[in-house]
Specification:
Order of helices and strands: EHEEHEEHEHEHEH
Shape: globular
Structural class: alpha/beta
Largest sheet: 3 strands, antiparallel
Oligomer: single chain
Number of strands: 8
Number of domains: 2
Radius of gyration: 19 Å
Length: 179
C-alpha cells in the first residue's frame, strides 16, 4: 500500500482471492511491478504455514533488515473471513501505529492523550490503547487487545459504540452514567 494506491499480485488460490476481495481499490499487478516501489506505507503478507500469526510475525521480523512495526492477526477474526485459515501480518515503517494519531492530536490540536477515548478490537490497537486515557475493546476483539483495554464493551455487530458515546458524552453530567 502506498498513499495513492493499493497493489497486489494475482492470488494463488480461492482463499487468497476471497481475502483480497474485501480490500477496496486494490489493483492486481505483475510481481516485477512491486520491485522498487517507492513511498510504501504498508506491506500485508498472508500465510497458512506458520500455525499462528504471532509466529509468522516473529519470522518476518527476524528476516527484515532494519527497524519496522509489525501487526499480526488471524484473518478469521474479521467477520467476513470466519472460515479463513490465513494468518496476516502488516509490515510498516517504524512508528507507534495508531498511537501516532494521539501524538498528532496532542501536537496539532492540544488534546492530551489522557482525554482521548480509543476504541478498537485488534493487536494493532494496543499502542493506541496504552496511550489513551480510556481504552475500549469490543467483546469480539482479539484476546490481547481485550486484555490491554481498560474496558470491554459489546460486539461490533451491535449498538455498543453508540451506547458508549451516549454514556460518555450525551448522558446528563449529573447522572451516574455521565460521571
Amino acid at each position: 500500500m502506498r498513499s495513492e494506491d493499493k497493489l497486489a499480485t494475482e492470488p494463488h488460490d480461492e482463499e487468497e482471492r476471497t481475502a483480497l476481495a474485501w480490500m477496496s481499490g486494490l489493483k492486481l499487478v505483475e510481481r516485477d511491478e512491486l520491485d522498487g516501489a517507492e513511498y510504501v506505507i504498508r506491506v500485508s503478507l498472508f500465510s497458512r504455514d506458520h500455525g499462528d500469526s504471532a509466529r509468522f510475525a516473529r519470522e518476518v521480523e527476524a528476516a527484515v533488515d532494519g527497524p519496522c512495526y509489525i501487526t499480526d492477526f488471524p484473518l478469521n477474526v474479521l467477520p467476513h473471513h470466519r472460515e479463513s485459515r490465513l494468518d496476516v501480518i502488516d509490515l510498516h515503517p517504524p512508528c507507534l501505529g495508531k498511537a501516532e494519531a494521539l501524538r498528532f492530536l496532542a501536537e496539532e490540536h492540544g488534546i492530551p492523550p489522557e482525554r482521548v477515548v480509543a476504541v478498537g478490537d485488534a493487536t494493532n490497537d494496543v499502542p493506541m490503547f496504552e496511550a489513551a486515557g480510556l481504552s475500549v475493546c469490543m467483546s469480539t476483539g482479539m484476546e490481547e487487545a481485550r486484555r490491554v483495554a481498560r474496558r470491554v464493551i459489546g460486539s461490533n455487530e451491535a449498538d455498543s459504540i453508540a451506547e458508549l458515546v451516549e454514556e460518555l458524552f450525551l448522558a446528563p453530567h449529573g447522572s451516574a452514567a455521565g460521571r
